[in-house]
Amino acid sequence: MSDSVRRHYELYPYPNYPLLASVRRFDTYANNLAALWSRFNGELPPQNLKRILIAGCGSFAPYPFSLANPDCAITALDLSGKSLARARLHCLLHGITTSRFLKGDLRDPSHAPGPFGFIDAYGVLHHLDDPEAGLVSLSSRLGEGGILRVMVYSRYTRREEESIRRALRILKVEQPAEVLKMVARSKEGSRLKRFFEESDEVSFRCGLADALLHPLVTTYRIDRFMEMVSSSGLQPLLFAHAGALPEVEGEVARIRELERERRSPGNFVLYLGRNVKGSGSAADATFVINPCLSKALSPFRVAPLHIPGRLGHRIGPLDGAARSFLRRFRTPVPAAELSNEELEMANRYGDELFLLRYRG
């Protein structure tokens, strides 16, 4: 990995959330390995693959992943020692001591050797000088049935941001303070001023640096992205960015149409798998609540429970009837004990990762 990228994150650990910022455990439900494994394999993960690698973990991700998976071995890998130190401190301040923090290049398989049941590479491959090599290296550490999530920048949504970033590099602007001075001098309605008015990311120092001063960024059209995915030897399973269609081929076709109009989703988020078994037949399934949600389903709660959708679309608030239905699955419930209507609802919640759906 480029040494310039390491230096960038030593200067600007990202994200820079307050160390006492907490996360509700039910908001981490889509990071739960058992839920992901059952979603794509139709079974619970084997003990030897209850291992998670956060590749390019930054300064925050180990905390919510540890919260979601207290029974899993989690390795947080990053090239920035400062980012790792902040991530470790964030975990410690919230009573989490189970994650392993490792400094190294994700392309080197001797750093955090597999096999892993889940690997997360969210927002990291597009900052490598060889993203394809990075994905292949991560793929080699994924166990049979394992799942890998990637997020990369899409071309057309990042077009204005990339234009500004290239201009700043030509001008040899290297400090956030220099950028802010330029913004202050910019005329109302100028591209730079308008970008700062419309972007939440540049409202804080490390976000500004990550968006506009990063030394290495690749943006993707969908066909180039899918070519990289193909080189990994993994199967594309599900797009999970906002508005994504449930079938991979349909979503690729939809994005191609958007790109003809020079538009695209803000990022491409895709789950990949190594020889996953599929969710299987609902007739012989057993359902149980995602452990991250169990405590949030109190019968004494009056207001609807708002849980963000994580797989490409919004989920309506859980009212009392929905919470009552989900509470039935605090212990495993075989599909045979459900009516057709209840089974349809259980399958829908299984698709959303609210329920674990597995054979047996």
Condensed summary:
The chain is an alpha/beta fold and 360 residues long.
Task: Give your account of this protein's structure.
- The chain has 3 domains: 3-155 and 217-273, Vaccinia Virus protein VP39 (Rossmann fold, 3-Layer(aba) Sandwich); 159-212, no CATH class; 282-359.
- The chain is built from 13 helices and 10 strands.
- It has helices at residues 3-11, 33-41, 62-68, 81-93, 131-139, 159-170, 176-185, 191-198, 205-212, 222-231, 248-260, 320-327, 340-351; strands at residues 51-55, 73-78, 100-103, 116-122, 142-153, 235-239, 267-273, 285-289, 333-334, 355-359.
Q: Strands of the biggest beta sheet: in what spatial order?
A: 3-2-1-4-5-7-6
Strand content: 15-25%
Output the radius of gyration. 21 Å
The overall strand count is 10
The biggest beta sheet reads:
7 strands, mixed
The CATH class designation of the largest domain is: Alpha Beta
Stretches where pLDDT is under 50 for at least 5 consecutive residues are none
Shape: globular
CATH architecture level-2 label of the largest domain: 3-Layer(aba) Sandwich
Into how many domains do the coordinates divide?
3
How many helical stretches? 13
CATH superfamily of the largest domain: Vaccinia Virus protein VP39
Nearest-integer average pLDDT: 94
Q: What is the helical fraction, as a range of percent? A: 25-40%
Ends distance: 45 Å
Question: Which key features would you list for this structure?
Answer:
360 residues; globular; Rossmann fold; three-stranded antiparallel beta sheet; 13 helices; seven-stranded mixed beta sheet; alpha/beta; single chain; 10 strands
